[in-house]
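Quarterly update from the structural biology core.
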Amino acid sequence: MHMVIRKFPHLHSVRDAAQRAETGLVAILRKEPGFAGYCIFDAGGGVGGSVTFFKDRQSAVAANARALVWIAESLPDLYDGEPEILVGEILYSGGVIPPLAS
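Predicted structure, tokenized:
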């Protein structure tokens, strides 16, 4: 299992970005081979991001490229700079993250 973390250190509205991702990016990610899950986080102070889970590194890297295109096209008014991106193998998981209530 692999994950992609995209951290945006300068978001104008984490909630607006999350809403757009929920209605746009998630549909794209769900169609990607190896997709296993997606979370959005708000770290406060205009910092937010996402964690996406995939079955293998190749799927994670390919989907991240598509996500970055969507982000550039759909969120340019909500962030400054470029997201920080980490791709890595999950070596341990203590459990499954439950879906958030709407």
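The mean pLDDT is 90.
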